[in-house]
Amino acid sequence: MASALCVTAFAASDVLTVSAIVKGKPVVIGSYDNFEDGWNAAMEIAGDEDEMKENGYERIVVDLHTDWEANDAGQFSDDQINGQGFDNDTIYVPADARVTLNLNGHTIDRGLTENEYNGEVMCIDKNADVIINNGTIKGGNSDNGAGGIHIKDGAKVTLTDVHIKENVVDGDKGAGIAMYNGSTLVMNGGSFTSNLNKTFLENGCGAAIYINNSTATFNNVRFYDNQFQIRSGFGAAVYSMQSTVTMDGCEIISNGVYSKIDKINGHGSYSTIHVAGGSTFTIKNTTIKENGSADYRDDVRPDQTGNYCSLIRVKDSSQLTLDACTITENLSNHYILDVAYGNNYILNTTIKDNVASVFSGHNAE
Fold first, then answer.
1. 1-27 residue pLDDT tens
2. Cα-only R_g, the chain
3. How does pLDDT run across 184-197, given as a tens digit for each residue?
4. Most buried one in 73, 81, 192, 232, CB count within 10 A?
5. Cα–Cα distance between 232 and 258 in angstroms, integer?
6. Is residue 50 within a helix (H) or strand (E), and if so which, with residue range?
7. Cβ-based neighbour number of residue 179 at 10 Å
8. Which residues are within 8 A (CB) of 338 and not within 5 positions of it... i.e. 6 or more apart?
């Protein structure tokens, strides 16, 4: 559905086009020279089930024709206007709405340099069905919900070739994405890059993504340079709690690396992948390389064992399956695989040239 919707002629000043899918085909509703007006109009329709049914709209489609940047205060909407498409200046998708957002190679940037309540770029409300294609989401800085995309209970989200980049949380979980309570994410291509979790110690969960009681699938996704700032957090790439996660053909590279994070007075991460709460986590055909899991303080030398620092940590009777993966050149001052409290299957996987003990645990094949 992505590019075909942009073929309709629009004025040079138009920044956004709103269409609807009717009997499987796109019908243009309107073009807008103002992001706020266009997004509000789209979400007002998408959030009104009666109007959707009356017009035979199967879903609402929004196409961007240029980058969408917040103002200098990090606001996507005017305080005096706001509307159905915004919540506390965050881009908002209403509950139960069916929406496709075609970025068409463009970037949505909130540009926040300071932490804000509800400072995420986008919030997807309960049971919404959202598809986002081909672009970048960046610049969130939040202490409530997520840094990049906050996915609420029961929402279904599909990302294709979307890059979640340079988002921050401070006082919450999931700098790139946080998802909760029966939500579903399918991510095809794209990446998580340089997302930063500043949350203190054990409350710092998920620098790239935090998955809670949900289902996530990652196909050919790159996780690169996602970090914690203050001491150590859990899951620099992925934190899974009571969830089902599948990764296939992914790259997990340079997350939680001490040599990089030290520049901002941090200490690596307790884990790059954290599997907890009875989660089922399957990783196939994936390269896990040059990640750092270490609690390096002034009183802990690199050759000493840190506090629970492991590349992959499995807890609470969770299940990990590694199949046809390569785990190489990672640094941990505890273990590469800390799987003592899970049921684990390691198949056709190469583990080599890491700086750490390889394995701690039982219940593994």
1. 333 333 344 455 799 999 999 999 999
2. 21
3. 999 999 999 999 99
4. 192
5. 10
6. helix 49-55
7. 28
8. 271, 308, 310, 312, 313, 314, 360, 361
